[in-house]
Amino acid sequence: MKRGTTKRRMRGTKESMSDGGMTVMRCFLWSLLLCSLSSRAQGFIYTCGGTLKGRNGTIESPGFPYGYPNGANCTWVIVGEEGSRIQLMFLSFAIEEEYDFLSLYDGHPHPTNFRTRITGFQVPPPVTSTGNVFSLRLTSDFAVSAHGFKLNYEELHSTSCGNPGVPPKALLSGAGRFAVGDSVQYSCVPGYVLDGHATLTCITNAGNTAVWDFPAPICRGMDH
Ligand SMILES: *[C@@H]1O[C@H](CO)[C@@H](O)[C@H](O)[C@H]1NC(C)=O
Ligand SMILES: *[C@@H]1O[C@H](CO)[C@@H](O)[C@H](O)[C@H]1NC(C)=O
């Protein structure tokens, strides 16, 4: 009987949330060991996330920074105003490499909107959606977690390029509204040299979208 219900629970529907709650209750009634064993056997899924609206905000993985749960399937859908784009700025990122993932969907979380999958221990550069909806999904396996992620999101208007980000060992000046016509300057901390353009200017491209004229440069160690 139990085996037969496993697949349904794995799908992570609303039903699985209440089933999950019952599993947790049973765990308290039995023992912690039995709990983890039965959770694994039943494909326990921890669901979280939600729909976010508003000009800006913060998203943290559950339990951040003390580690996200195993068997997580959390989906956040950020919905901006019509005509805006959504920018994600990562503040912290640590996800068990190649086992747990943060997937980004340029639109609603549907396979056709899949954009990229992030894993590992490096803070990713800022990323901007093409439309007014951006979705994130955290999925973790049944062993080992890491401290998770924290990011700020912001709605960008058509005249804003958004923060171009600060690569490792780089410094950014000339910050402001990052609007069309604005420029920013990069430099590197001592011992590092800049590869790429030191000055980026926010321009309007052929598609009438505000974009930086060049990608952010990188700072390279002098002896490499
Ligand atoms: C996560 O949940 C979504 C729906 O809420 C589902 O479509 C998807 O298959 C689930 N992913 C995993 C790995 O269970
Ligand atoms: C976020 O939005 C609020 C108002 O909606 C604004 O006061 C605040 O400055 C914004 N924060 C950032 C970081 O843009």
Task: Summarize the structure in words.
- Helix 2 runs antiparallel to helix 3.
- The protein starts with a helix and ends with a strand.
- The strands form four sheets. A five-stranded mixed sheet has the order 1-3-8-5-6, covered by helices on one side. Strands 2-9-4-7 form a four-stranded antiparallel sheet, with no helix packed on it.
- It is of the alpha+beta class and 224 residues long.
- The protein has three domains: 1-44, no CATH class; 45-156, Jelly Rolls, CATH 2.60.120; 170-221, Complement Module, domain 1 (Ribbon), CATH 2.10.70.
- The radius of gyration is 21 Å and the shape is globular.
- The chain has three helices and 15 strands.
- The site of one 2-acetamido-2-deoxy-beta-D-glucopyranose has 3 residues, from loops.
- Residues 1-43 form the signal peptide.
- Pfam families: CUB, Sushi.
- Residues 48-156 form the CUB domain.
Present the secondary structure layout.
Layout: H1 2-10, H2 14-29, H3 32-42, E1 46-53, E2 56-60, E3 72-79, E4 85-94, E5 101-105, E6 114-118, E7 127-128, E8 133-139, E9 148-156, E10 170-173, E11 183-188, E12 192-195, E13 199-204, E14 210-212, E15 218-221
Parallel strand pairs: 1-3
Antiparallel strand pairs: 2-9, 3-8, 4-7, 4-9, 5-6, 5-8, 10-11, 11-13, 12-15, 13-14
Helix pairs in contact: 2-3
Bound molecules: 2-acetamido-2-deoxy-beta-D-glucopyranose (2 copies).
What share of residues is helical?
Answer: 10-25%
What percent strand? 35-45%
How many domain regions? 3
Number of strands: 15
What order do the strands of the largest sheet run in, or round the barrel if closed?
1-3-8-5-6
Q: What is the CATH homologous superfamily assignment of the largest domain?
A: Spermadhesin, CUB domain
- Using the CA coordinates, give the radius of gyration: 21 Å
Instruction: Report how far apart the termini are.
Output: 61 Å
Q: Give the overall silhouette.
A: globular
Which CATH C-level class of the largest domain is it? Mainly Beta
CATH architectural grouping of the largest domain? Sandwich
Average of per-residue pLDDT values: 83
Question: What structural class do you assign from the helix and strand content?
Answer: alpha+beta
Unreliably modeled segments: 1-42
CATH fold type of the largest domain: Jelly Rolls
Q: What is the string of SSEs from the N terminus onward?
A: HHHEEEEEEEEEEEEEEE
Bound molecules: 2-acetamido-2-deoxy-beta-D-glucopyranose
Domain Sushi: 159-221
Domain CUB: 48-156
Protein name: CUB and sushi domain-containing protein 3-like
Signal peptide: 1-43
